[in-house]
Amino acid sequence: MKRIGNLFKKDIILGIKDVFILLELGFAVFIVLLLLFVIPENIEKDKTAYIYDATTLVKNFVHSTAESAEAQSRKGSYYVDSREEVIKGMEEDELAVGLIITEKKNGTYRVEFLTQPYTKNSIVQDVEVEMEDLMSILKPQGGIYPPDVYKSVKVNSLQQGLRDELPFNLRLLPTILMYMVGILGLFAMVSLIGQERSDATIRALRVSPASMWEFLISKHLLLLATGFATFSILYLPMMGFGGYPEALLLIILTILMGSSIGAILGGLFDNPIGAILWVLLLMIVLSLPAISLFSPSFSPQWLKLIPSYHTLFGLDAVMFPDNNRHIIWQGVSILAVIDVVLFALSGLIFNKLIRKEA
Amino acid sequence: MIEVKNIYHSYKKNDEYAVNDVSFTIEKGEIFGFLGPSGAGKTTTQGVLVGLLDLQQGDVSIDGKPREGRPDKAFFNRIGVGFEIPNVYKKLTGLDNLKFHAKLYNGATEDAMKVLEMVGLGEEAKKKAGDYSKGMMQRLGFARSMINKPTMGMDPNAANSIKNIIRKKQAEGTTIFLTTHNMFVADELCDRVAFIVDGKIVTVDTPKNLKLKYGQAQVTVEYTDSGELKSETFGMTGKDKELLLKFLADHDIKTMHSGEPTLEEIFIKLTGRGLE
Fold it and tell me: Which residues have a Cβ under 8 Å from the Cβ of B62 and sit 6 or more positions away?
């Protein structure tokens, strides 16, 4: 323990003098300030729809079903008086869509949905179906429905739900924590070992009573300590102490996973440049689960085989409780098992690899 | 005492040996020089001896205790290794470098400041090692190799020559294994030297014996010829001696210097290779 303490002290001093620790902490402060004061809580941009409703059917329907005056003057919907005005409005606002409703001579309705050139076909088709449904409600073939039916109609986007109500800056936090703190261990361990190997200071340690296990444990401790401080800087101002212990546990386990993989790469390559391709590749793989977090429709089973999946979804469950605590403990258990295996394996592999070097 | 018998080492674990059937014995308190050009097998042999590399084949025993597997902590507590490369923590001061290493050892260690003074770095102790010259960093590395072995009765101010320190260590009974390609240092310090080339030991003997056995005493004469200063070297025995005497009689001699062959010349003669 005395030796590990001595190695740890040395690593902390070198970490501070190499600016690695200060840079990490400084960057964390910068990111948290961005999250708090620059990145908005709500990034939903109001979409404008220019509507030319020659029949007044839709206009009246919206007015009659809207529950409040505020809803009636809903932002983003502009009723105009001609097709030309719809097009002009769309030319001025590239995000706007247009809707033209006219009545045919035979008493049926013609609905034109105008989109911008880059609009996806799937969205156009989606709107077509929605409009068809809406028009069949407004003008059913068998006559009109009683007024109560219209009042009970509520139009909701399928994509809308609880998640959209979460502040955007908070939704970014799990991914930022995983990148800046969790995966930090991988890159930093490769760099720290590479530095000792290229300076050959590791050789001086190898002919001292300090073992390579002690050498690695000290590095793991340095990364855990730095990760702990970085995590606290990022988490506490955003979330307070709510879920802090669980989130910290997940992050610690993720750092240890990354630093263990880093130890193997550090043994395989005698300088960090040689390992950089592997580091980047692994970082890309470890970041794949973030896609699933932001786009839940992308959730193939194999994604769960990537350890960072459990970090991300565990952190998400900690930060946004929704009867999902089992995800936290499931993540903790899986990461703990991975850590035990990787830690032991990385130590053995590193010891074996380093003994090939005189 | 260090005994090395028939050691082999291959980095690729095939029949390409960096060290090939190397054997030698170093007596307690002896300074043993291991001399050879780059890539000859010096570092590999040293690596096996100090436990940096696995002992793949052969036997190594220290003080009669055979090496089995990897050396234990007790072994590393007894040895000190200095390296040719200046492998110190450049962001730490010289003093902090030594204090850090001292704490890795069990038992009493030398006072870090005293060791720095011994190697002539007392005044630079609190400077970052990265600001040292290469030579100063090497001295710091040498100081580190002594940190676990208190040096008895040495006046730090009088000992700031590395050679003096090595001699003092020898006098205390420390066994010293010195790998170098600097023949002058080896000649001056070593009780015995081994020449190693391509992983194999060519010869082991004292520098004196090697010179007597393989060298020839020489005389270098400087003379003027048409107003120009020239020099000529002659052997001191047999026909060379006659030629020298005739040359002295026939020329306007300015200076004469006798000398014995250098260890490097013996090395070249025995191995057909230079040391660089």
Answer: B1, B2, B3, B75
